[in-house]
């Protein structure tokens, strides 16, 4: 699976990224996230490369816990995380670029393989995830307006 979505948000990238890259807001704008906590700080403390965030989510009617490790953190442009614990491997990329004409071109890309756990939903998985990340971006825009 490799899905992405993007949206122009009429706020500067610094504002959008500051909110979106703060794990304490994950449950406010990310579909299905009920709880997020910084389970391992970065080497220098706080949030950055090497930090791990544990998320509790509800996905297709199941509660799942997973841990995402920060692989790249370049505010206000890029945040990349990959799962290091959870039901399936995934790689999540958030980008916040200046949009032509102003504002922020915000995008989310999710790559992963959920076939082992969600075999029956395989054909629908990409559509479901794409719909969710479109909602994420819509909700992100509402929270930073």
Low-confidence stretches: none
Q: Output the structural class.
A: alpha+beta
Q: On the 0-100 scale, what is the average pLDDT?
A: 92
Overall geometry: globular
Quantity of strands, as a count: 7
Helix content class: 10-25%
Q: What is the H/E string? A: EHHEEEEEEH
What is the CA-based Rg, rounded? 15 Å
**Which strand order does the major sheet show?**
1-7-6-5-4-3-2
What kind of assembly state do the chains in view correspond to? Answer: single chain
Estimated share of beta-strand residues = 35-45%
Distance between the termini: 31 Å
Largest sheet composition? 7 strands, antiparallel
Q: Number of helical runs?
A: 3
Can you give a write-up of this model?
The protein is α+β, with helices and mostly antiparallel strands. Helices cover 24% and strands 43% of the residues. It contains 3 helices and 7 strands; from the N terminus they run βααββββββα. It has helices at residues 13-20, 26-29, 122-144, and strands at residues 2-9, 33-40, 52-59, 62-74, 78-85, 90-98, 104-112. The protein has a 7-stranded antiparallel beta sheet. Strand 3 and strand 4 form a beta hairpin. Helix 1 packs across helix 3. The longest helix has 23 residues, at 122-144.
């Amino acid at each position: 699976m490799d899905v992405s979505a993007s949206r122009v948000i009429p706020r500067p990238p610094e504002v959008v990224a500051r909110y979106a890259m703060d794990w304490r807001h994950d449950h406010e704008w990310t579909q299905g996230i009920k709880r997020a906590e910084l389970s391992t700080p970065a080497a220098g403390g706080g949030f950055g490369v090497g930090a791990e965030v544990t998320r509790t989510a509800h996905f297709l009617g199941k509660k799942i816990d997973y841990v995402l490790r920060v692989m790249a953190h370049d505010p206000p442009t890029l945040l990349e995380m990959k799962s290091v614990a959870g039901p399936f491997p995934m790689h999540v990329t958030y980008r916040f670029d200046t949009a032509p004409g102003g504002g922020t071109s915000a995008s989310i890309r999710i790559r992963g393989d959920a076939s082992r756990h969600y075999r029956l939903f395989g054909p629908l998985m990409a559509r479901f995830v794409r719909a969710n990340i479109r909602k994420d971006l819509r909700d992100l825009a509402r929270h930073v307006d």
